[in-house]
Amino acid sequence: MSKMLALALAVLLSAGSAWAADVEGKVQSVDTTDRVLTLEDGTKLWIAEGVSIEGLKEGAKVKASFEERDGKNVATSVQVSD
What we know:
The protein is built from one helix and five strands; from the N terminus they run H-E-E-E-E-E. The protein has 82 residues and is of the alpha+beta class. It has a single domain (19-81), classed as CATH 2.40.50.320. Strands 1-2-3-5-4 form a five-stranded mixed beta barrel. A hairpin with a 4-residue loop joins strand 2 and strand 3 (44-47). The longest helix is centred in the N-terminal third of the chain and has 14 residues, at 2-15.
């Protein structure tokens, strides 16, 4: 019985975990008011508070790490590359 309880608890805890991913692409648009970055492939990233949006502009190449929060892809880091 305790093995079943431990397994059920592990499944419940992992179901609530956020997943993380990386993406690279060219910036299509930047909305500095709402802190939203849209890539040319249509990917939208909401930039987390504390993450700099300096240097983000249309046409810039970026690499971002993000995680899904409340149905949105929230960027936890954004790097502008040359």
